[in-house]
Amino acid sequence: MLPTYVKLHLFGVKSAALKHLASHPRIHSVDSQAWGTAARTTALKEGVSCSNELKIDTMRDWAGKQRRAARPRQVPLL
Asked: Which of 21, 28, 43, 74 could make an SS bond with 7 (beta carbons 3.0 to 4.6 A apart)?
């Protein structure tokens, strides 16, 4: 068992779960590859390159949605 002062980073957290996890005292941060999948899907659908610009825009949108879902306590997104 980990000591109670140890904080956790969660990988692959879905948006629907984030609102339930956001107030947990041991969670320090979360991340997901969902934004990368969304960028690739958009590029394929629109017939464009999956450029860094598209990836950055997609990641920013994803991070904003996760921050809103994590309220009232902000969970750092890496």
From this structure: 28
pTM of the complete model beyond 0.70: no
Pairing between strand 27-31 and 8-11? parallel
Check if the beta carbon of residue 49 is closer than 8 Å to that of residue 21.
no
Local confidence band at 28 (pLDDT 50, 70, 90 cut-offs): confident
DSSP 6-50: --EEEES--HHHHHHHTT-TTEEEEE-SHHHHHHHHHHHHHT---
SS3 77: strand
pLDDT tens for 4-19 read 899 999 888 887 888 7
